[in-house]
Amino acid sequence: MAKIIASAMCSHVPAIGAAIDLGKTGEPYWTRVFSGFEKTKQIIADLKPDVAIVVFNDHATAFSMDFVPTFALGCADEFAPADEGWGPRPVPVVKGHSELAAHIAQSVIQDEFDLTVVNKMEVDHGCTVPLNLMFGSPSEWPCKVIPLMVNVVLFPPPSGNRCFNLGKAIRKAVESYPEDLRVLIMGTGGMSHQISGPRAGLINSEFDKKYLDSLAGDASHARSIKHVEFMREAGAEGIEMVMWLVARGAMDEKVTEKYRFYTVPASNTAVGHIILENAAA
Ligand SMILES: [Fe+2]
To answer: Which of 193, 221, 227, 273 is catalytic?
Structure first.
């Protein structure tokens, strides 16, 4: 049987991708950020995932603002890096696991989560930056990837609690897949940040750290946060943090915090990162 072996959540700041692509990771500004992911790469390598489900949001790249599905599951065999305005990132093509993805779609839709099935999609920094942070910069990504896109760009996004419950449904789907697969589930986005308007540059470390504490606990606080509170406390783009709850929902109620890192800022964003394993494991 397939099983969820761990969850890993992290910010997906586009400037992190640019720093990698332009060879700037050794600059003092960036060593502070990247040093926090050195241990991560060893932890993830030791976990040896066969598949990573990457919960991310598209930034009006694959889906224009003409239509934005609330939840969209990538069921293709591969997903090319998207051109976000300065050419596609020079990272490997993301190889999908179409059989497991189709199984998840079947199971989760029968569990009343109406996913959009996506058979063709290019993936932007929301997906590829976290892959770099988890796996470094290999010539090929070391595991298959199932991208799960969540709408956090066009009002109204799903609630954190809805995302948490989707995670539970995904876990049920994974655990009913007959092949022995080690599945890592990743939540991406956030943490507190606002990229435009009078409050541009807003960062709320207190809010972020309480959120991380909640994920490492039973997540009840994180699940209870309303959109307006994300907007007020964590900035207009802080709503991205609901995606971490999909990954948290796929775990047991009791988890062990394997690793945590938090630094401010990267670009104009707080960078947070946490790796969780089931306490029973
Ligand atoms: Fe984002």
So the answer is: 193
Token representation of residue 90: 């020079």
97 is catalytic: no
Q: Percent helix, strand and coil across the chain, each rounded to 5?
A: 35, 25, 40
3-state secondary structure of 126: helix
Active-site hit among 125, 221, 227, 273:
125
Report the C-alpha gap between 183 and 101 in whole angstroms: 12
Q: Which run of H or of E encompasses 227? A: helix 227-234
Task: Report the distance separating Cα 212 and Cα 178, nearest Å.
Answer: 33
Listed in sequence order, the residues at least 6 apart from 227 whose beta carbon sits closer than 8 Å to its beta carbon are 156, 157, 159, 239
The stretch 206-232 carries a mean pLDDT of 98
Q: Residue 260 pairs with which residues in a beta bridge?
A: 274
DSSP β-bridge partners for residue 51: 144, 183
pLDDT per residue as tens digits for the range 234-279: 999 999 999 999 999 999 999 999 999 999 999 999 999 999 999 9
pTM: 0.98
In 3D space, the residue among 242, 219, 218, 188 whose CA is nearest the CA of residue 53 turns out to be 188
